[in-house]
Amino acid sequence: MFAKHDPLIIEGTAPILDRSAAHSTWGPSVIDLSRLKWATPFDVAVIAAIWTRMELAGKPPTVVVPTDPTVRAYLVDMGLSDVMPGDWGNGGGCRVDPPWLRLTRVVSSEAWEDLQHELWSAAFAVLGTATLTNQTLDILGELIDNASTHGASEVGTFVCAQRYSGSTSGLPPGLWLGIADAGVGIPNHLRRNPKYAGIVRDADLILMARRKWVTGTADRRGWGFYEVFKEAERSGPSQILIRSLAGEGDFRLRSGKRPYVRTRDIGPGVPGTWIHVRVEVS
């Protein structure tokens, strides 16, 4: 995985989310953010996971920070400067809506449970209703629990969340969540179950993972991921994008309608699981 150490050039708008980031490996020697124009919580969480994975391997990439002071301040506000060294300047203060959950490294389900109680008030202040707050924290809780129990690694799980006005993205106002880990990946976890061991295509296993009782264990489990999709659908028109190993699943959800689903093969393969959640809320 670390055989090549090409620079990872992250430029433009949401470059990891839209797969425009220039790379040939997820083990870069340099993470170049100099021409970055805008990033989502997904981009931020993934960048943090990539850098931490390499740092723990004893090969921390050199970080080139954004030249745009507004983008640089935004990443400081998001908490990326707390993870990666670099010439970040004098602090945040970006005009973009600040995150209600700054980039956080979660090492266990228990740690998230403790943090979740502290987050409720901050989330409620931004999200506005107890229902949406509970749904959002339930989604995050299930995804983090999956990462912590099935994809555990020394990197941990990175998570951050923000409510967007849509003025920068051009998309309807909404809630954006980003989760990234460096574990075994959803497909390899499911292959631990003999029922799914013969399924070769990673994207097919990502598609299966959203069904009830699909699990990589012999226990009657596999309800949590199904609940993530239901909570997202109940919260509002939603997108859940999952990348894991060499597969991607893109799910568009709307209450009362059949989901739009697209899977595809990706390369180079993702080291772990990266998840983007966007919920449209007014």
Molecular structure report:
This protein has 7 helices and 10 strands. The protein is α/β, with parallel strands linked by helices and 282 residues long. It has 2 domains: 1-96, no CATH class; 97-282, Histidine kinase-like ATPase, C-terminal domain (Heat Shock Protein 90, 2-Layer Sandwich), CATH 3.30.565. The strands form 3 sheets. It has a 5-stranded antiparallel beta sheet with strand order 6-7-8-10-9, sandwiched between helices. It has a 3-stranded parallel beta sheet with strand order 1-3-5, with no helix packed on it. A two-stranded parallel sheet has the order 2-4. A hairpin with a 6-residue loop joins β9 and β10 (260-280). α3 (109-127) runs antiparallel to α4 and α4 (130-150) runs antiparallel to α7. It is globular and about 55 Å long. 46% of the residues are buried.
List keywords for this structure.
five-stranded antiparallel sheet; 282 residues; three-stranded parallel sheet; 7 helices; globular; 10 strands
Put simply, the count of helices is 7
Order of helices and strands: EEEEHEHEHHEEHHHEE
Per CATH, the superfamily of the largest domain is: Histidine kinase-like ATPase, C-terminal domain
Largest sheet: 5 strands, antiparallel
> What fold name goes in the CATH topology slot of the largest domain?
Heat Shock Protein 90
Question: How much of the residues is beta strand, in percent?
Answer: 25-35%
Any low-confidence stretches, pLDDT <50, length ≥5?
none
- CATH class category of the largest domain: Alpha Beta
Provide the domain count. Answer: 2
Mean pLDDT: 87
Q: What is the rounded distance between the termini?
A: 43 Å
